[in-house]
Design goal:
- By secondary structure, this protein is an alpha+beta fold.
- Helices cover 34% and strands 22% of the residues.
- The strands form 2 sheets. Strands 1, 2, 3, 4, 5 and 6 form a 6-stranded antiparallel β-sheet that branches.
- Strand 3 and strand 4 form a beta hairpin.
- Helix 2 packs antiparallel against helix 3.
- It is elongated, with a radius of gyration of 23 Å.
Length: 181
């Protein structure tokens, strides 16, 4: 293949590695994610490459946003970095009222953004717990699966709060959602 400036998302066929997609562009090479061989750095002039579906043809060096999102997710899980999760617009500056059945008792008012922040922190801590279970050296595979299923059921119990999230990608997903993946 002659040297071209294909963009991220371009689908390619390589005679040795099979089908792949460009996930990063460097000065003289492409970072290509191959279905059966993972990410490989391939010279732009490699004669074993054949373009299938072009995408984002550009002169610039760029990175793929999915790769960046994956890296940020890993950093969040292992570095204690919390993601900025936006509250749904209709809930901004809202107030949550907890009214006791006994009307003689005073209700409790909680700003929705404070409550939402606590829900997001809970979700983040569950994710860290999940990762700690996955890498735990003393737990058996069966123990890990049982604990993972329990955490999935916890996520399912929290789906009620999905209404507060601005973006669906931040929602809690329980057993039904996990089976669809």
């Amino acid at each position: 293949m002659e040297q071209t400036n294909l963009g991220i998302g371009t689908r390619l066929q390589h005679t040795q590695h099979g089908p792949g997609v460009i996930v990063g562009v460097r000065y003289a090479t492409y970072l290509i994610s191959f279905i059966n061989h993972g990410v490989k750095e391939i010279d732009k002039t490699d004669s074993h490459l054949e373009e299938i579906i072009p995408e984002n043809i550009t002169e610039e060096i760029e990175t793929h946003s999915e790769v960046e999102r994956s890296l940020l997710k890993i950093l969040r899980l292992w570095g204690g970095i919390t993601e900025l999760v936006p509250l749904g617009d209709r809930w901004r500056n809202g107030m949550m009222l907890l009214q006791p059945a006994d009307k003689t008792q005073k209700p409790k008012e909680i700003p929705i953004d404070i409550f939402f922040h606590k829900i997001v922190m809970l979700r983040d801590r569950l994710r860290v717990l999940e990762q700690n279970i996955n890498v735990h050296k003393q737990l058996s595979g069966e123990d890990k699966i049982n604990l993972q299923q329990y955490i999935t059921r916890i996520y399912g119990s929290l789906t009620t709060f999905n209404v507060l999230f601005k973006n669906k990608e931040h929602w809690f997903v329980g057993e039904k959602g996990a089976k669809e993946d």
